[in-house]
Amino acid sequence: MTSTDQLSSTPPGFLARLNPVTPFLASILFTTPLLTTIDWGSALIGIGFTVLLILAARVSIMSVLRRTWPILFAAPFAGLSILLYGEPGGTIYWQWWIARISDQSIDLALGMSLRVLAIGVPTLVMVAGIEATRLADSLALVLKLPARFVLGALAGFRLFAVFVEDWTSLTQARRARGLGDDGKLRGFFTMAFALLVLALRRGGHLATAMEARAFGGGPRSWARSSRLGAIDWTFMAVALGAGIACIVMAMLMGTYHLVGSGFDQAI
């Protein structure tokens, strides 16, 4: 297995049976209803559906943490500023200068943090592990995207892992010349510039090679077929139903606040 192939392992559980574009479309269908509100109720229910997805797909906890740790780290900070500096309302529990913690700021901060998790985590769980070549076939044959764009994106993705190898080679070359320990910050920018030059050269060579092989020169044929099956349509319908269920249950709980209705203006 090459280093580029290691970037896209097989998706877990039943997700491996889905068309590669299905998780992307399902993510849009699930998260779009959640974007209509800022409340903790719908977001908490969305997280509950995410837990069910993880269990159904048989994804390990460590795998979920490895894929979603940036979102898990950023979610509390997304609500912290709203908690301290959002428009106060109701009982004020703490105040210092312009920072205030009140009932309304707590409600908004909790809703924002949970919504980041409810939108980001299921998206990363569903799209992780999709093989690049299968995804390119689906983008061209299912979504009908231009072949030039699809093939260019595929080539760029395949070369992404090469950047890591280039960075390692540049580091070893600098150390061999006695430059590895001379100014960490300066060395970083020097290596970043060298990597940029190397990437531009490789991109130019790749573009020339693709043009010589008539990429983008006209209609193309595809070696593999890609189509949406019953399991794909069912999965997208379930995703849309789950998103709508979050909104309906939030309305029944009395926590739903439509974006633009005035409550979100307190942010």
From TrEMBL:
Bilayer disposition of the protein: Multi-pass membrane protein
This protein's record includes keyword Membrane: yes
PANTHER family: SLL0384 PROTEIN
Protein name: Energy-coupling factor transporter transmembrane protein EcfT
Keywords: Cell membrane, Membrane, Transmembrane, Transmembrane helix
Keyword Secreted among UniProt keywords: no
InterPro entries: ABC/ECF_trnsptr_transmembrane (IPR003339), ECF_transporter_component (IPR051611)
Transmembrane segments: 40-57, 69-86, 106-129, 141-163, 183-200, 230-253
Compartment(s) where it occurs, according to its Swiss-Prot or TrEMBL record: Membrane
